[in-house]
Amino acid sequence: MTTATTTQESVINKEQLLRHWLGHRHLTRKTIEAFPEKELFEFSVGGMRPFAKLVVELLAIGGPALKNIVSRNTNSYNEEGIIVNTKKELLEKWDEETATIHGYFNQIPEEGFSETFKLFGQYEFPIYENILYFIDNEIHHRAQGYVYLRALGIQPPFFWERQA
């Protein structure tokens, strides 16, 4: 087995990465807001999960994963404890988790982003790659929400409007 060590110069810094992620979270929040209450929890296309269930998945990843990274805990992925029955509750939980993300993200030292971590006891990658996965997964599920909104005849938020 051979190993190689590479050094990487920073392309973006820690604050820029967090701002980028929070911009996506802001846009996902706007997407949640665009849904009518009933359709948020019931509407789907092609057998995919309703958007509220996709959002619950996102809630079970970002904040809990960063908490695990900071505490070096490899707890399993779990969305069972996230119970929301209204759009208001979902938005409140979204805002709580955004604050959790912000708090734990800031506890990771800049040099810590290159360290590997076995996320949810399953996938071992550098921390920055885990965070990029969180963002990619959110974009993927938000795009599903955009398809739902368009199928409902509702204009989704413009994807480039990521700032609060």
From TrEMBL:
Entry coiled-coil feature ranges: none
Entry annotated with the keyword Metal-binding: yes
Domain of life: Bacteria
Sequence positions that bind a divalent metal cation: H141
SUPFAM superfamilies, per database record: DinB/YfiT-like putative metalloenzymes (SSF109854)
GO MF terms held by the record: metal ion binding
Any Pfam family the entry gives: DinB
Keywords: Metal-binding
The family this protein is said to belong to: Belongs to the DinB family.
UniProt-recorded name of the protein: DNA damage-inducible protein DinB
Provenance organism: Niabella soli DSM 19437
